[in-house]
């Protein structure tokens, strides 16, 4: 691929599987032979880094004031000056390699105040396009095939930056009435941003997650989501899998489990198919 594609995981709600999705779709794309960078904007708790077992070391670096530059630095007014001083490869200390092959820019406590700092930028286009500028100028030259961004489970200046920069949203949904409403609100949100700022933000992948098909209700919601998002629905769903939860707690994705359960195997297949579909859709669009 001669271009870096981008997508951001977003839903105005916590716990539906955004971080899990970014981790697994990322590793799935890696398994398909793509170079993958994950970026954690979801908050200082560092969930994405935990998912790859690299948070403890990073947290130590943070405590010793050595995690610099970090993800919040790149939003700074003076980032381009900083980057220049850092020399040839300004992202060398920002990007971490993981055991599963994907690279990662972890979260940082500086994300805490980032939302209000962005809020101080009067011009809305400038407020929402900081991340895009960073990706265009500093990440794209690194030649990744795809950059996946994990976002906070709320609509704020940080998540807008992620959506704006990515141009494509990935939305994990659980099978319930609340999620159906949230996904619909998200679609309206994306349209609103598009109208206000003349930028395209598409819902590229709706991924049903934690599905328990033993319940009739889950089947009904699956069918409803399929009807509602024919252009974005993933080819398959991710089942509820205790293995996914356990793997996350051990600092790995389901792809690294030695003896995956049948639900974990199903999940891996779904994530591989979802990665293929996502890359198709990103490649088929005209997002540069
Ligand atoms: N398919 C799944 N089966 C079982 N547990 C899951 C599944 N997907 C996510 N989880 C668990 O649900 C919790 C919330 O997921 P997470 O990805 O952190 O959500 P979010 O980032 O949207 O807050 C985590 O403990 C995660 O391990
Ligand atoms: Mg999360």
TrEMBL record:
It comes from Natronoarchaeum philippinense. InterPro entries: AAA_dom, DNA_Partitioning_ATPase, P-loop_NTPase. Residues 12-199 form the AAA domain. CDD domains: ParAB_family (cd02042). This is Chromosome partitioning protein. It comes from the Archaea.
């Amino acid at each position: 691929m001669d271009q870096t594609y981008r997508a951001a995981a977003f839903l105005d709600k916590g716990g539906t599987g955004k971080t899990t999705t970014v981790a697994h779709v990322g590793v799935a794309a890696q398994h398909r032979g793509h170079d993958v960078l994950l970026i954690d904007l979801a908050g200082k708790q560092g969930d994405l880094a935990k998912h790859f077992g690299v948070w403890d070391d990073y947290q130590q670096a943070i405590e010793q004031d050595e995690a610099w530059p970090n993800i919040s630095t790149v939003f700074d007014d003076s980032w381009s000056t900083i980057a220049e001083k850092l020399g040839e490869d300004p992202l060398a200390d920002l990007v971490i390699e993981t055991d599963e092959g994907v690279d990662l820019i972890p979260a940082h406590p500086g994300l805490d105040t980032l939302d209000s700092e962005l809020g101080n930028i009067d011009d809305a286009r400038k407020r929402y396009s900081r991340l895009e500028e960073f990706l265009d100028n500093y990440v794209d030259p690194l030649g990744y095939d795809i950059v996946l961004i994990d976002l906070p489970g709320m609509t704020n200046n940080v998540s807008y930056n992620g959506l704006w920069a990515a141009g494509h949203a990935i939305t994990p949904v659980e099978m319930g009435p609340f999620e159906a409403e949230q996904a619909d609100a998200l679609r309206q949100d994306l349209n609103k941003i598009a109208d206000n700022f003349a930028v395209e933000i598409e819902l590229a992948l709706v991924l049903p997650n934690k599905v328990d098909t033993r319940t009739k209700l889950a089947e009904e919601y699956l069918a409803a989501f399929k009807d509602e998002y024919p252009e974005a629905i993933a080819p398959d769903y991710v089942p509820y899998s205790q293995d996914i939860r356990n793997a996350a707690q051990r600092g790995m994705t389901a792809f690294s489990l030695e003896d995956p359960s049948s639900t974990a195997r199903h999940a891996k297949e779904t994530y591989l198919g979802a990665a293929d579909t996502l890359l198709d859709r990103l490649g088929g669009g005209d997002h540069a």
